[in-house]
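Weekly modeling sync, notes
Attendees: S.R. (lead), two postdocs, one rotation student

Agenda item 3: backlog of single-chain predictions. S.R. asked that every request posted to the team notebook include the full sequence so nobody has to chase files. The rotation student volunteered to paste the first one in as an example of the format we agreed on. Action items at the bottom.

Example entry:
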Amino acid sequence: MFNLSSYGLWLLVLINSLMLITFCFILIRPRTTRERASFAALVGFLIALFTEKYGFPLTAYLVSGLAGVFYPGLDFFSQLSGGIWSALLGLQVNPFAQPLHSLSGIVIFTGMLILYYSARMLHEAKKENRLANTGPYGVVRHPQYAALMVFMFGFVLEWPTVLTLVMFPILLTIYSSLAQREESESLERFGEKYALYAASTPAFVPRLRSVSRGRFS
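Predicted structure, as returned to the notebook:
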């Protein structure tokens, strides 16, 4: 039986989920049916993550039987055992104090920061009725989707669960599909200007040369 002092913290599930969902909603501002569907998938990812992290350890139930053979005596149902990563790596430390947790925090914060600046640049471009190709858009064509990918990867790195590991590649596929559709719309709207921009700017992964030349500013 899992440690009730480690889980069943539904208020934390609610607070963390609402904070991040609100943050993403304000910046993404989903309008089309496709955007709302992708945002709903993101909401599902976040709720699944925090439910298992603070509410009910479904993944621990699913892996404890097999993993118990290799790690006898380890309590997979207590967060104090270090979470799934720490348990599998044999690190008997608090999950919130281990280096992997700190690294994931940096990755998550980086994703949130890029998402914020991307949303600001896109809003300014739409207000001026021009192509967004400065700031993060000067480094990659789809910085908002890239930011969300980084953001989600950080949480997978921090606290992987069965549901989030299944949903992560699905969301990557959804964002890639949305990016392709938006490219077609932008090409139709901006014509050759967008074609030249697309030819010189990668879709999701920045070129180190672009960053070193200061195209992010």
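Discussion: group reviewed the output briefly. DSSP finds nine helices and no strands in the chain.
Action items: rotation student to repeat for the remaining queue; S.R. to check formatting next week.
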